[in-house]
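Researcher: Here's a chain I'd like modeled. Treat it as a single chain, no partners, no ligands.
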Amino acid sequence: MKKKILFPIAALVLFVSVSSFKTDFFEIAKQIEIFTTLFKELNMNYVDETNPGELMDTAIKSMLKDLDPYTRFYNEQDVEQYKINQSGAYSGIGASIYRKEGHLFIIEPYENYPADKAGLKAGDEIIQIDDIKVVDFKEDTTTLLKGVANSTINITYIRQGKTLKTTLTRGQIEIDAVPFYKMINNNIGYIVLQKFNSKASAQTKAALIALKEEGATQLILDLRGNPGGLLREAINIVNLFVPKGEVIVTTKSKIKKYNKIYETKNKPVDLEIPLVVIVNGRSASASEIVSGALQDLDRAVIVGSRSFGKGLVQRPKKLTYGTQLKVTISRYYTPSGRCIQALDYWHRDKNNKAVRTDKKNYNAFKTKNGRTVYDGGGVDPDVKIEKDKHSNITLALVKERVLFQYCNDFYYQHQFENISDFTFTDADYNNFKNYVINSKFEYQTATEKFLDNLEKQAKKDDIELKIEINQLKNTIAIAKKEALNSNKEELSALIKDQLVTRYFYKKGLYTYHLSHHKSIQKAVEILNSKKYKQILK
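Model: Modeled as a single isolated chain. Structure tokens:
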């Protein structure tokens, strides 16, 4: 007998602010009643069995989709993952996993964690976990890898065509906010800040103090690829370099209690050390609070490419039955008064995509020393480095896992004892090109998609364009063949990054970047020149 599912009305009510609820009480009550009756009738009368939980999950997430991408509903499983992200710890095998169409691959085993200790490598395909075959498991397979610390699991996997087995013991996995710090030379310290979880400010402070003890008189803080996190951690990190009582962030909302001014509350570690902060297009939210505040206060030189542009603040709200709503409650403003939100989710284009703020509509603000900075599109670096925007062929090779598979094969064909021995030569790149060609890899450019549509429309309009379109397609085909040569630099860089990580883990990659990444090299150059002080005047 099918159970009737009673929809928790209180959960929907919480999606609406108190002020709106009072104003639109009748309309809200009406819509809730309509939805409740629809949900009941659908569940009772649909021709096939339905899953009420999945239906509700889809309905709520679809409702929120038209707001902004940060206002989200978390079911019970989502809440657990959210807690892991914020706390920086969970129990599992310690590996980055890729799932696709019933397949489960190891992307990166974390050094000295269970997967690594059990001998699992990047590229291994897990096909069975204990008695469960991955291909037959319809739910999230990665949940099978997580579990109580010190519990054991048996894993069957495929490596380079061979089926192997291993047993590992799950462990407590600590996600470091600062996975790496090191002296670049005798006087420049370097810190990678990867996440803004609850450990971020404490680990950044510890790294800063350790580097100063090693002789650091200048510092580089790397926020590239940092998606953000906890607001308080961002403020505490800025506080390491600025005095107590400095305004770092102001939040503004339609709800009065969310209008707040956040100031530094602690004694700083170093007010004088020359500081360069590196950002890119994937540095967002809390990363932009740190870089934006340090820029506004003329406390650091910002290097890199324009940051993502997320000026919205979220807060979690508990709902019934262990679920949760993360809702956008306000916008944040840096010390100069600018909001760096780049996308307008409330005024969309004809394709229902958020509109990016036009440069002509940016507003000018002044830093503490009177320098001009702008709102509207992320933190614009003081020293710009060309944005790492990948070509179509690079994106396609990554998406189709061709580059990943090539790196798997290369790893088992070459050995390097030390990172200083690592090389990827022109001959190796030629081998890569042959690998791509032999893999029968194909991709479609945006121009080809346009021509396909044009050809269809021409037929409908009874216009003969076959010869012209074929000529254009031949030209595109030649350009696509040449793409492996014209994009050699960016493809080589991605291959090197993947290979170094396979041989020497993520710490090895950070070490490799110290002498090979243009953003870090530019940061070192600025710190070693008069340009640093000139920029901040």
